[in-house]
Fold this sequence. Notes:
heterodimer; A: 7-stranded mixed sheet; two-stranded antiparallel sheet; B: alpha+beta; globular
Amino acid sequence: xxxxxxFDLEGVDGQRHSLDDYADADVLVLIQSCNxxxxxxxWEDRMSAIQRDYGDRGVRLVxxxxxxxxxxxxxxxxxxxxxxxxxxxxxxxxxxxxxxxARALDAERTPEVFLFDRDRRxxxxxxxxxxxxxxxxxxxxxxxxxxxVLSGSEPPVAETMPVGCTVKWRR
Amino acid sequence: xxxxxxxxxxxxxxxxxxxxxxxxLELLQEVLAARGIDARVELREVTSQGEAxxxxxxxxPTIRVDGHDIDPAGADARPALNCRIYHLPDGTVSxxxxxxxxxxxx
Lengths: 171, 106
């Protein structure tokens, strides 16, 4: 997968969101995400911070939950809405019940970052940074990639290993 | 002479799909060593939802000392093959328990 996949998904804001709806964004960051995973929970404030810090520079960060909500009820759409409201997510949070986006992205973990440039080419894939413990972070992979792509250069690191829970596939 | 304390039974249940168990096991072994507790850690891999239910496994890793979960607040969560959430004193969450939680349980 080298380009952004098409999608048209319902968000926790009650609106449909398609790839084309983000056409104005200079950078689109898709993050495979969910509710129940402690790794996601450890990183979600940083996801909001990144959206706030980069929003006026043309960056849109979009989290997508594709987990099987029958097996993991904490990841249901209702629970997504509840968590987004409770935690004040600054980013769009979309529900992918068919798991089509997760398959198209070939995602394995939550959270897992896919950064697409203006032409929606994949420029960075992997972890948000190098530690689930914010105080221990030494490498801000996603922020560094955003700074690079927004300034027209190559991300210093284009690929890292995402650390988190597995995507919960339907059986 | 101080009577020798019986070594506790320490169970470490984990699911391979969650990456937190090596860190948690290392921390557990560090705490055991630091406290001079000569306990054998019984490792048990949980591989199916049925096994998770039978073992009342609320997520990986789950650590029990003499049958008692080190984080009783999380022990009754729905049994499932997932990463366990540990709530930290500062209000954040972690996929591994804190050293203090382990020390208290031991």
